[in-house]
Request: fold
Amino acid sequence: MNINLVGAAEQNTSKAVLSNVYAINLLDFHGIMPKMLVKQGAEVKAGEPLFYSKDNQDMLFASPVSGELIDITRGARRKILTIKILADKTQDYLEHPKMRPDADSEEIKSLLLKSGCWPFIRQRPYDRVADPTATPKAIFISAYVTAPLVADVDYTLKGKEEELQAALTALSKLTPGKVHVSVGKGSNSPFNKLEDIELHKVSGPHPAGLVGTQINKLDPINKGEVVWTITPQDLVIIGELLLTGRFNAQRTVALAGSAVKSPKYFTTKIGAEIATFLYASGVKDENFRVINGDVLTGKKTSPDGYLGFYNNTVSVIPEGDDYEFFGWNKPVFDKISATRALTFSWLQPNKKYDLDTNINGEHRAFVVTGMYEEVFPLDIYPLQLLKACMVKDLDEMEQLGLYEVIPEDFSLTEFICISKQPHQQIIREGLDLLQKEIG
Amino acid sequence: MSNKRLTIKKRLHILKHRYRGKKMAPAFNAFHTFLFSPDETTHNGSHIRAADDLKRTMNTVILALIPVLLFSFFNTGYQHYSAINGFPDNFAVMDHFLTWDNFWLGFVQVMPLVIVSYGVGLLIEFIFAIIKGHEVEEGYLVTGMLVPLIVPVDTPLWMLAVAVVFGVIIGKEVFGGTGMNILNPALTIRAFLFFAYPTWMSGDKVWVHGAVDRAGTADAISGETVLGYLAQNNASEFSYSVSDMFFGFIPGSVGETSAFLILLGGLFLIFSKIASWRIMVSAVAGSLVMGLIFNGVVDAGWIGEGSTFYGLMSFDFWKHLLVGGLAFGIVYMATDPVTGSQTNRGKWIYGFLIGFISVMIRVFNPAYPEGVFLAILLMNVFAPTIDHYVVRGNIRRRMKRLKQATIFPKSTDEKAKELKVETL
Reply:
C-alpha cells in the first residue's frame, strides 16, 4: 500500500547553512551503553572518537565535525542523551590509512570499528548496531524507496559509484554469503553497474522497499542466524573512508512534508541542527511536527533538534491536535484508508494526501482481523506475533519469527490499525525482552 | 453556525479536562467522542494514521443492517394483517407490503425491542467502563442492533432486558470487554432466550405479532415458519414461493427473513472490507454441501416419506439459504472478527463448518428447526483451536527452513533477479 503524501522533495539540492552546533543523539543507538573518551571542553577532530560501547571496547563512535565538545546532556540515572560539539570554522579531519583493495576482512573490520563507521551497519535479530564478533549469513541493502516522502537514493547517490563500489567490495569480505542490493525495477540506480553484489530488481508498493520485506522474500533469517543491513547513503561515508582515509559525515537529506513550503534536498552533515535547513525552505504554519526520518518510522524532534545518525529524510507535517465534528461517521475524502467504510481514498489511488498527526480515533483492544495481512507481505502472522509480544510469551515470539523483524516492518500495519495500537513499540519491547532473556 | 460550533467544541474540551481522572470521565468521553473525534495525536512510531477507527467500523455494520431493520417494520405488519385477513391474492409489493399500516404496526412493535436492547446494553457498558476506568467501547453498537433482529417480534421486553444483562455481562464483560470475548454477545443473548424461555422462541405462535395474545380466543391466528412446516413434514401446507422466501415476505425472527437485503448488506460489507468474504463464501459453501448431502440421502432412497427428517432433508439444498436465520447469521454474525477465526486460512475452515453444521442441526434438531445460532456459538468455541493449528503450520514451516538453512555462496551469475512484492 503506497501512501502518497503532499510535499515530496523536489530534485534540487541546496547547500544547507553551516550549523554552529552538531549533536550525536545516543537514542539513535538503541541498546548501546556509551563510555565517554573525551571530556567536556575538549577539542576534537572530525572523525575522532567521542565514546565507545561498553559491550565492545573496539566499537568507537566518531564526531561528525571538528570542534569543541561543549555539552553532554544526561537523563535519568545520568544516562547520556546527547553530545554537542561547537564546530570549528575550518574543519580538521582525523586521518586514517587508505584501504588497499586487497585488504582482508580483519583489516576492514578494524578500520570500520575505529573510524566510527561501524555503527552504520545494523543487524537482525534485535535491530541494533551490528555485533562485530558475529558472522552475518548475508548483508542486505535496499536502494528501492517506497516509504512516503523519503529521499530518493537514485537521486542523492548519483555520481557516488566509486565510493559505493569501494564500500560494497569491503563489506562483501565481511560475510561468507552474499551482499544483496535491491533497486527499483526499471530505475536508473547507481548500483546497477556495481560488482561484488547480488542485484535484485524489486517492484511493488510499500513495504516492498523495506529491507525487512526483501530479506523475508529472498533469504529469510532463521533462528540463530544474523543478517546485517546498511542504508545506501551510509555506504557512501564508508566508501569515502576507504578511499580517502577520512570520516566525512556529509549527507544529502530530503526535507519533505506538507508543512514545508518548498520541499527539496540539502547537503549537510550528520548531527546538524535541523533549523539550519528547515527555515530556508519555509514552513507553512506554526503548528507542525518535525520528524527525524520518514512519517511512518521516524523520531519526533523539533526545529532545534539535530539530524539523526541514520536519517536521510526530515519530514515536517501538520500537528493534528484538534477535534473533528462527527469524525467517526461522516464520509472521508481527505484521508487515506485501507477500507472503504465511507472512506473514499480507493477512488483516487494516485491522489496525494495532506495527513496530520491526529490518531483519527481512540485506542482500543485488537478487534478487526485480516487487515494487517493485506499490507504485510512477510511470511509471518502479524496479529499473532504482536499478541505474543504483548503477553511476553517468549516461546511464541520466537516461533512466530520475531527475530526476523524490526519495528519498521510493522509501520504500515500500525498505520492502518483500526484499534490504534502502537505496533512498532510493541515489537521494540518484544525484541528487547527476547534479547535480554535469550541473548 | 461555525462560531457556535467552535464554542461547543471548546466547552466540551474544557469539560474533558475537568473530568480527567474523575470516575465519570469514561461516561463523559463516550458522549464527547460521539460528537467529536478526539484531538489525540501520535507520539512515536507511525506519525500518521489511517482514517478508520473502531467506531467507523461498527458504524459500517450498522449501516448494512438499516435496510434489514426497515424491512422488518413492513414485514411485521404484513405478516400480522395477512394472518388475520388472509394472504392477498395478486400480491403487489406497493399495494400490500410497503404500506403505511404495515410500517406503523412494525415500527410500534420492533422499535421497543431496539430501544430496550440498546438502553440496557449500553447502560451495562457504561457501568463497567466507569467501574473499570476504561473508555466505553463500541462493541455493543452492533450487538445492540443485532439483538432485536434475531428474536421473535412478540418477545416480552423484560425477557429481552434480562437476556441482554446476561449476554453482555457473561458473554463479554467477564472476559474483559470488546475484543476479549469468546462467544458472540448477540448470540449469547439469543441462546439465553432460547434456553430460558423456549415457549416464547418456538412454535407457530411467536413469529407473527399478536398470535400469542390471541391464542385460544375466537380471533386466534398463527404463523409457522417455513422451517417449522418442513420439520413437521407439512411442506404442502405452505404456499410461499421461492421469490417470497428470497425477498422475505415470510414469518420468522424480526430481521432474518429477507435474504435479498441480507445479500445486499453482505455485499456492502465485503466491498467496504469490513467483514470477511472468506467466512461468508465458505459458510455458504458449507451449507450447500450439507444440503446436497441430505438431498442425496433422500434421492438414494435411504429414508422414506415417513421419516421425521424427510421434510427438511428433501428441501432443495440451496433454499436453506433463503429461509430461517442462516443468511443473516452468515453475513452479520459469523463474520464477527473477535469471536471468529483470526487467520485467513482459519476463516475458510471456520466459515465452512458454520454453514455445514447449521444445516445439520436444522435437520436433526427435533425441538427447533434452526441451527445457525448454535452452529456459530459452537464454532466460536473452536475458532481459537482452528487458528492454533493454522499458526502451527507457519511455525513448522519456519522450523523446516531452519533445518535446511545454508549460506548461499557468492554467485557468479551476473544477471539481476526480479522480486515482485504483492500487497494492497
Remarks:
- The beta strands of chain B are 36-37, 417-420.
- Chain B has two domains: 2-35, 54-391.
